[in-house]
Design goal:
Layout lengths: L24 H18 L6 H19 L2 H9 L4 H40 L3 H36 L9 H29 L10 H15 L8 H15 L4 H44 L1
Helix pairs in contact: 1-2, 1-6, 2-6, 2-9, 4-5, 4-6, 4-9, 5-6, 5-8, 7-8, 8-9
Keywords: Coiled coil
Pfam families: BPS1
InterPro entries: BPS1_pln (IPR004320)
């Protein structure tokens, strides 16, 4: 009896076009990435968002390598008429859409922050020009938050449908299907955390007096100080700009404090953007790999 190409010493009755009974090291590696990311996602003291995105890149890099294995490709071809393959392709599109939404939100916020920084640096237009730019920033953030909340609502609906059927499957194929389902679920979960992070705390719809709003913002700042700095840059800037808009004073201390927060936000956004762009390219490569397997 022929030995398995991925395990020359193994002798079993598995079909030649199925994955070997002993998990391939890449499957074990993918499962280890999933375990780590799942632990990060549920931890009460979660890792910084960039760390999670970097972990996602490692996971999808592992999946991409797994898809290059001949026996993995044969298994997918064998299952090409099954619904889970269509769900896999649909899921890859969903991940690309959510990743694009996150990138757009980051870019939009970063550009608005940069415009506000520019006005602060020049300080030529006085309070009127500064007030106009502050209002523009607040409006742009409201638009971004609304778009994010819509995406988060869509994500909730998607997560409920994120299941692949594994009944009556070979053990090896069932394991592959289960792992790919977990990859999509964990990726969606981290994208959800990222979108919530970019959005910042939800604003109440009721109209607040200037004093109650300032009090609320100061309380938010105190709570933020107890959390990780990496996870509060957007919320800190939102609170600072709101407070600045209410007080509308161009005292040097206030201006410098706001400018420093905006600079940190821009740097932080740039880092997240780079991580997302790299992840986006990996997601595209995985989708192309699956399509090529099915079309060849």
């Amino acid at each position: 009896m022929a030995a398995s190409p991925m395990n020359p010493k193994s002798h079993c009755h598995a079909r030649s076009n199925s994955l070997p009974s002993r998990p391939h090291p890449l499957i074990l590696q993918c499962n280890e990435h999933l375990r780590r990311l799942g632990s990060d996602a549920t931890s009460s003291s979660s890792s910084p968002i960039r760390h999670k995105l970097s972990g996602l890149q490692d996971l999808h890099d592992c999946v991409e390598k797994l898809l290059q294995l001949p026996l993995t490709q044969q298994s997918i071809v064998q299952e090409s008429q099954e619904k889970w393959v269509d769900k896999l392709l649909d899921g890859s599109l969903r991940l690309l859409d959510v990743c694009t939404a996150a990138k757009d939100s980051l870019l939009h916020t970063k550009e608005c922050a940069r415009e506000l920084q520019s006005i602060i640096r020049r300080r030529r237009g006085g309070e009127l020009e500064l007030a106009t730019e502050v209002r523009k920033y607040l409006v742009s953030r409201k638009v971004a938050r609304n778009a994010i909340h819509k995406s988060l609502g869509n994500l909730k609906a998607i997560e409920k449908k994120c299941t692949f059927a594994t009944a009556n499957k070979d053990h090896e194929n069932a394991e592959l299907i289960s792992m790919l389902r977990e990859v999509e679920a964990v990726t969606l979960s981290i994208f959800e955390s990222l979108l919530s992070f970019i959005s910042g705390p939800r604003q109440t719809k009721s109209k607040l007096s200037s004093w109650s709003l300032v009090s609320k913002l100061m309380q938010t700042k105190r709570v933020a100080c107890t959390q990780e700095t990496d996870e509060n840059e957007f919320a800190k800037v939102d609170a600072a700009v709101q407070s600045f808009a209410l007080q509308m004073t161009i005292k040097s201390d206030n201006i410098n404090s706001l400018q420093n927060l905006l600079e940190k936000l821009e740097s932080h956004s740039q880092g997240l953007e780079e991580e997302l762009e790299s992840l986006f390219r990996r997601l595209i490569k995985i989708r192309v790999s699956v399509l090529n397997i099915l079309n060849n």
